[in-house]
Amino acid sequence: MQTTYERELSQSKEFLTQNDHFLIVSHVQPDGDAVSSTLAVGWLLSCLGKKFVMVNEGPIPKRMRYLWHAEEILDLSVTPLDRQFDHVICVDCADFKRVGTTHERFAEGARLLNIDHHPTNDHYGTVNLVVPHAAATAEILFDLINHMGLELDESVATALYTGLLTDTGGFRYSNTSPKVMAAASKLLEYGVDGPGLSELLLEQMTLPQLRLLTRALNGLELTEDGKIGWVSVTDEDLKATGAVHEDMEGIVNYPRNIQGVEVGLLFKVINEQAVKVSMRSAGKVDVARVAQSFGGGGHVRAAGARIEGTLNSIIPRVLEQVRQQL
Ligand code: AMP
Ligand code: MN
Ligand code: MN
């Protein structure tokens, strides 16, 4: 008997082989898994001789430009794309909103292949390849490429390894399953530079990034019981330090790493009307549920939401929701 996963893999294979002229999109402010998964799907379609365009609402992080054809991911905020696509592949997007403005390039009635690993995924695709226990979307793509009988090479192996490495925090988080380690082991056999990628993606910091971290930590706050810790970053902080948006990645781990803290939060002011909140849990609190109550989503230990309002009005609301889960 076919498992659900095998059936979804077969349906995805059919979607990719039976159609052509695809649009590949990932979520706004793409992370390592989002970028890698976009490129891995592009690589897969190239193997099939298909035509495709890769896009994102904004730029991809500078430090990921080493990846195979990374420069071909169009930044729609600077490069307009004047056509629409009937076949779209969404990677690493828990819900339709996560694709941001790229949806303007979806034709009316476009058929969607939704490849993702968030437990909060609402199956918005025409075809859904959603595996909540997968550590990264890259893990699912590793399986899909194998399912399709394609032989990996170093370039796609490097992309897939990047997705696994970043979404498992360097193979340390609780999602680092035996399957992840087996896949990573296989990818290393294709010549992936594991230590080099760890150095580049997890160790190295730019000076503005370090300055931003210092500045943010200066404003660290804790609840009286020491169970919730948070920091916030405003546009002013970015300007003062010369840091860019992607430099905020990872800051949320610091409040979470304090002994006794159950939930670490990072509030990033997007503009006067909206704040992005990143949530990390030590394990007791399901932050995906907290994020969902604000229209966001994610995983039990790592989740996020974009909330309308000012920083001062949002912080107490989020703290209250977290407290209820404690
Ligand atoms: P972040 O805090 O942005 O690093 O995101 C942590 C996790 O939550 C990642 O798996 C994200 O994909 C997910 N996530 C972040 N923001 C949202 C959102 N607005 N909606 C759904 N999932 C989100
Ligand atoms: Mn992601
Ligand atoms: Mn992911």
UniProtKB/TrEMBL annotation:
Q: Mind listing the UniProt keywords for this protein, alphabetically?
A: Hydrolase
Pfam families in alphabetical order? DHH (PF01368), DHHA1 (PF02272)
Q: What's one GO MF term for it? A: 3'(2'),5'-bisphosphate nucleotidase activity
Asked if the keyword Hydrolase belongs to this entry, the reply reads yes
Asked if Hydrolase is a keyword of the record, the answer is: yes
Q: EC number(s) in its UniProt entry?
A: 3.1.3.7
Residue intervals of the DDH domain: 22-163
| Residue ranges occupied by any DHHA1 domain in the UniProt entry | 246-324
Listed InterPro entries: DDH_dom (IPR001667), DHH_sf (IPR038763), DHHA1_dom (IPR003156), Oligoribo/pAp-PDE_c-di-AMP_PDE (IPR051319)
- Gene3D superfamilies membership: 3.10.310.30, inorganic pyrophosphatase (n-terminal core)
Q: What is this protein called?
A: Bifunctional oligoribonuclease/PAP phosphatase NrnA
Organism in which the protein naturally occurs: Paenibacillus timonensis
